[in-house]
Amino acid sequence: MHSATHAAHRYPVHRLTLSNGLRVLLSPDHAAEVVAVSVVYDVGSRSEPADCAGFAHLFEHLMFQGSANLERSAHARYVQSCGGAFNGTTHLDYTEYFQVLPSTGLEHALFLEADRMRAPALTEASLANQIDVVAEEITGTVLSRPYGAFPWLPLAALLFDTFANAHNGYGAIDELRGTTVEQARRFFERYYAPANAVLCVTGDFSPARLELLVERHFGDIPSREVPARPVIHEPALARERQGDYIDPLAPMAAFASGWRVPDPADLVAYLPVLVASRLLVDGPLGRLSNRLTRDEELLAGLGCGLGITGEIFGVRDPSALVLSGTLLPGTELDRVLRVVDEEADRLAVDGPDAGELAAAVRVLRAQLIRSLDGLAARAQQMCVFELQHGDALRINDLGPLVNEITADEIRQAASQLRPERRATIELIPGAAV
Amino acid sequence: MTTTTSEFDLDTVPFPAPLRLPTVAERSLPNGLRLICARRSSVPLVEACLSIPFGDTEPGASMVLASALVSAPTLQDRLRAMGAALSTGVDADRLRIAGSTLAEHLADFLALLAEVAIVAEFPADEIAIAVSKGVRYSEIIRSEPSHRVLEAWNRRMFGDHPYGQAGPSAEAIARVDRDTVLDLQTRRMRPNDASLVLVGDLDPDATLDLVNRWFTGWSPGSDAVAMPPVPPWVPGDEVVDLPGSTQSLLRLAMPAPRHAEPEAPALAMACMVFGGYFSSRLVQNIREDRGLSYSPRSGVLHVAEASLITIAVDAVTANTTAVATEVLAELARMVTCPVTPDELDRARRYTAGSLRLQLSTLTGTAAVLLELDQNGLTLDWLRDQDDRLAAVTPDQVTEAAGRHMTASNAVSVLLCDKDKVFT
Fold first, then answer.
1. Nearest-CA residue of chain B relative to A36?
2. How far is residue A24's CA from residue A197's CA, in Å, rounded to a whole number?
3. Which residue of B has its CA nearest to A290?
């Protein structure tokens, strides 16, 4: 119907950099009277210091605890009084804060982000309170649930060797209790410099007016030195790794295998791996799903994705393709892995059928479009692409790049899924019936 | 540059601009199917949801039917060729077949959706796979503490009524065979009172014609289907013992007025002030002041035959008693510390804003239109939402809270390690 025009549709970006180094992306979209404001700092759990596992996440909580100007509950009160929603999330390689709100509230959101970029309140009371809240969060999402943090935490620990890549980004509750306000101040000083952040606004606004507002609120934040990015590169595995652990709450066995993938910043090499993963597993379908969950009935379910936490874009090198599944009672994991090797091999040697590839590409294109429909998600991705790819506009290239992927590139991508490059963690069910 | 900006005043917080509703085209087919179409052309996709009344069906059979309905590889391959996806879900009220497609394939997508709704074949091997998947899923979901507490909560509120379950048991799923599914399909996959919502880059009139073409041959069922009435409300407490658990899950519910009842707007505001959002009393007290819980929350839940105020709080074992005490104290405070004009104003603004945010995405718009339809409400009703909330006074909110948000009328369930909590 309108595909010709939409195929060429690209999200616009006006870009500016303030004198303190803050990078600003403005992407107007007048479809609804709503705006999203996203601030992404180039620090995540993989850049936290070795004696501070979990600190990036804990610090994210502290950014909601008031500032030099505002009391603790003010952030939520102002955003929600504007009719808006907010949150903060800590990722492997970045930390994001956002507000999405009726466009009438835009300047309030800018004020609030600038205010805490300038001077968050870091107090003993807030720190103690938020350690309690984070302890509740860790208990609820990791410790008290079956399959808590599976496969992310156990697989990262097996697939990687350095602290940066292998450690638990939630941290241990006991260790978090020992952290101090002084550590928080140093963390802020080091990682929350304006030049270590990207601000993006998407939605219903006038770029000319917004430029003035951004300068008004963020322009006078003093500039600080930007820390060097930590070196987190690790060589790929040369020999297969296997490990296991008991999950006392889990009723069924599960496994996850991870293979290292090309640097996600190199989209031309990375995207074929994404398409290959879809050819192997795509919801109920895909070559591996067909064999493992339907024809040979070895697994109760199977999933496959890029990114150790399931985040396809927004991760730096090193990253991984993760295949995980639930084993039916009686299934030997080795038998599953043999099928995996056979199918990876078949894809590497014969390549995909033309129709199979075209369908996978089409589905992926539709999913990419859908994932960028929300203003907050779009603003987040623009920030992340600006940080990690040096250009927010690269999000517009994803669809076209996926469209151009050839059967040869799929073969090449599949040829990397070798057993000797793989780490496999097995979850042993402590609550099997 | 000619652009200027006025002085910024943090405490002048703007109210969201007037609501902009999507333009919706509606039609009812003679067979009872309602079509609801809205154009939103910013992305080249169409979002679809077909919702069929499925109340008072056997939960195991419903689950297997839903699971096998779109699982066949040949069907999934046809969908993928359009860049489309379809999935199904079923609860005690309705079966939903939902998905999206690249807009350029809408005509083929609708033809396929009609085929699924009207002449699904349920091959024997798909039924077998759905049964085996369902049994495994049921085992895994039952290991989740959040599911265990939901089971006890629903049973305590609704007993033998279909709402009394939290999904079928593994045994009920294992009993399902193809004949059961075919029988359920014949009786219940009917257009009577079903609705189809389509939102996206489409021409509403042309789309209505297309839907008319594909769905007009869907014959209505003869049986009038009525959900049994819910049993009388019996307040009370229950403790579910989970030895070894490190986190306790507390759930409370009280009956609420239906959407269209005069008290509903005031009660919605009361729930918001109580625990409906981050700035609420409950979240500020037990999370931000006391650090006792990560994500305490409350809200109003409307299903076909019941409306409930729900409260959910999770806390580590050592904090269980403190959390329960504070929840009850905050409920009492809704009356002893009357809702202030400021609190009401904030709750109202947040509610107004949330609706605008929801309508800013394709999936959100489809969800709003579907929810309106399932609750028997119209777009005009939604248009008046801001005015209805504006008319609510703080006294009315406090009164509504006093009448409905009372611990003495609650069904409360606590899942915990009993020995550690009650020492």
1. B357
2. 9
3. B73
- Residues B165, B41, single domain; the answer is yes
Nearest-CB residue to B140 (from A100, A144, A251): A251
Walk along chain A (433 residues) and give the pLDDT tens digit of each residue.
Answer: 333 334 447 899 999 999 999 999 999 999 999 999 999 999 999 999 888 899 999 999 999 999 999 999 999 999 999 999 999 999 999 999 999 999 999 999 999 999 999 999 999 999 999 999 999 999 999 999 999 999 999 999 999 999 999 999 999 999 999 999 999 999 999 999 999 999 999 999 999 999 999 999 999 999 999 999 988 999 999 999 999 999 999 999 999 999 999 999 999 999 999 999 999 998 778 999 999 999 999 999 999 999 999 999 999 999 999 999 999 999 999 999 999 999 999 999 999 999 999 999 999 999 999 999 999 999 999 999 999 999 999 999 999 999 999 999 999 999 999 999 999 999 999 988 6
Q: How far apart are CA B287 and CA A65, in angstroms?
A: 12
Q: Are residues B61 and B178 in the same domain?
A: yes
Give me the domains of chain A, ranges plus CATH numbers.
10-218 (3.30.830.10), 241-429 (3.30.830.10)
Count of CA atoms in the C-beta half-sphere (13 A) of A337: 22
Residue type, B94: R
- Say whether the ipTM exceeds 0.90: yes
DSSP secondary structure string for all residues of B68-116: HHS--HHHHHHHHHTT-EEEEEE-SSEEEEEEEEEGGGHHHHHHHHHHH
Q: Which chain A residues contact residue B287 at CB under 8 A?
A: 133
Say whether B357 and A102 touch across the interface (CB within 8 A): yes
To the nearest whole angstrom, how far is the Cα of B401 from the nearest Cα of chain A?
A: 21
Min Cα–Cα distance to chain B from A234, Å:
35
pTM exceeds cut of 0.90: yes
Let me know if residue B14 belongs to a domain.
Answer: no
Of A82, A301, A359, the CB nearest to B81: A359
B15 domain residue, yes or no: no
Q: Whole domain around residue B386: which residue ranges?
A: 236-421
CA distance B248 to A271: 43
Burial of A367 (0-12, 13-18, 19+ CB in 10 A): middle
Interface mutation target, options A115, A136, A292, chain B, most CBs of B under 10 Å:
A136
CATH number of the domain that residue B103 is part of: 3.30.830.10
Do A366 and B102 lie within an 8 Å CB cutoff? yes
Question: Both B42 and B92 in a single domain?
Answer: yes
